[in-house]
Write a structure and sequence with these properties.
This protein has three helices and three strands; from the N terminus they run αββααβ. With about 90 residues, the protein is an alpha+beta fold. It is globular.
């Protein structure tokens, strides 16, 4: 999904809410999580973000995971920050 379609979906479905998300990783958008008593949050795939970092920045797996852990997963920029999925292993 591109950024325009993601923003269109979020504003159509959740017009009153604010969403924070990692810029440049719209293709990792999975959906929205909702829970009782909390605002909805965007959900992104960690593995897709790491793949993006490797492909777009020429990072190794180790470098991409380190960058992701510190700069994306480790960044707290408010209550509206996106959730990040961790894929299960079969």
């Amino acid at each position: 999904m591109n950024k325009e379609k993601m923003v269109e979906f979020l504003t159509a479905q959740f017009p009153e809410d604010v969403f924070l998300f990692p810029n440049g990783h719209e293709n990792a958008f999975v959906g929205v999580t909702e829970r009782c008593g909390a605002l909805p949050c965007a959900v992104f795939s960690s593995s897709v973000i790491i793949d993006n970092l490797k492909r777009e920045n020429g990072m190794t797996e180790y470098e991409a995971v380190e960058f992701f852990d510190y700069n994306i997963k480790g960044a707290f920029v408010g209550e509206d920050i996106a959730f990040l999925t961790v894929p299960s292993e079969d």
